[in-house]
Design a protein that fits this description.
Helix 2 crosses helix 3. This protein is 68% helix and 0% strand. The chain has 4 helices and no strands. It has one domain. The chain has 102 residues and is mainly alpha-helical. The two termini are 29 Å apart.
Amino acid sequence: MLLILSLSSLPAQALPKNFLLSWDKLIHFIEYFILGILSTKSMKAINLNTLKLVLPFGVLFACCDEYFQSFISGRFSSGLDVLADSIGFLFGCLLIYWKYND
């Protein structure tokens, strides 16, 4: 989470201007996919109640991250970024859930 927030706090001028930024939504998906995996695996039990607890946390963190980013020079907040974050987080959580509940 600290890595995500530290990357979000970089001003637009500090970001590389290369082809990676054209894959913005995929990058959002991947970073939150990893966060979903780590969040779910950090729980004592992995079941539907765990997902009910963890998923709203991930979506709320994505919203807060985008809101925080709106205060950084040259950066802006995007609902589509929150959507990509949330879907990535959901997929990461579901992957772990399915792995442990086959």
